[in-house]
Write a structure and sequence with these properties.
The complex is a heterodimer. Chain A has no helices and 12 strands. Chain A is mostly beta strands. By secondary structure, chain B is mostly beta strands. Classes of the chains: A mainly beta, B mainly beta.
Chain lengths: 113, 110
């Protein structure tokens, strides 16, 4: 069965610093991979997605993610974080029919001024 | 274009009461989903629908029922609420495998 692991429950970075959030997946075939962001009290918003092709994917708000098949990873990166990036981030993998997704447990990002 | 909307935003129920959560989408998506979100557990799929008139069980369906009488609406029902159903409920619709989420309903069962 498909699964997603986000090893870091909580990460704190300083404003202007670079960011990398880790995501590892378990899936037999080529996965469909996603990153979502959830601001406090809000629903989830799609940041970016990977289906095939170029392994470096650009998303909204200056985020990018890199698919590495050999490491079963899909890490999210941003060169310089802003205070408004404080939120919870979820990695997800496509899970078979009906376009279902399996989500990781999330990583909460705190930004220090 | 409102996207995905959910009604109500907040609700407090007593144990044993019933209620229905409404999800509506105006994007003409075939697939719709109900999730619950609990601290440290991410999102778990309750039920989903692949089109009007269809429903199917997800990962945690017990205690919930759903209906999809119209393509744009997906209803989640709790027949006899229990404290374990205290959670934040999210509805989503999907196109091309990308899911679009509503703002959520915070439900407390006392």
């Amino acid at each position: 069965a498909q699964s997603v692991t986000q090893p870091d429950i909580h990460i704190t970075v300083s404003e202007g610093a670079s960011l990398e959030l880790r995501c590892n997946y378990s899936y037999g075939a080529t996965p469909y991979l996603f990153w979502y962001v959830q601001s406090p009290g809000q629903g989830l918003q799609l940041l970016l997605k990977y289906f095939s092709g170029d392994t470096l994917v650009q998303g909204i708000k200056g985020f990018e993610a890199e698919f590495k098949r050999s490491q079963s990873s899909f890490n999210l990166r941003k060169p310089s974080v802003h205070w408004s990036d404080a939120a919870e981030y979820f990695c997800a993998v496509g899970a078979g029919g009906a376009q279902k997704l399996v989500f990781g447990q999330g990583t909460r990002l705190t930004i220090n001024p | 274009n409102a996207g995905v909307t959910q009604t109500p935003k907040f609700r407090v129920l007593k144990t044993g009461q019933s209620m229905t959560l409404l999800c509506a989408q105006d994007m003409n998506h075939e697939y719709m989903y109900w999730y619950r979100q609990d601290p440290g557990m991410g999102l778990r799929l309750i039920h989903y629908s692949v089109g009007e008139g269809t429903t199917a069980k997800g990962e945690v369906p017990d205690g919930y029922n759903v209906s999809r009488l119209k393509k744009q609406n997906f209803l989640l029902g709790l027949e006899s609420a229990a404290p374990s159903q205290t959670s934040v409920y999210f509805c989503a619709s999907s196109y091309g495998y990308a899911q679009y989420f509503g703002p959520g309903t915070r439900l407390t069962v006392t």
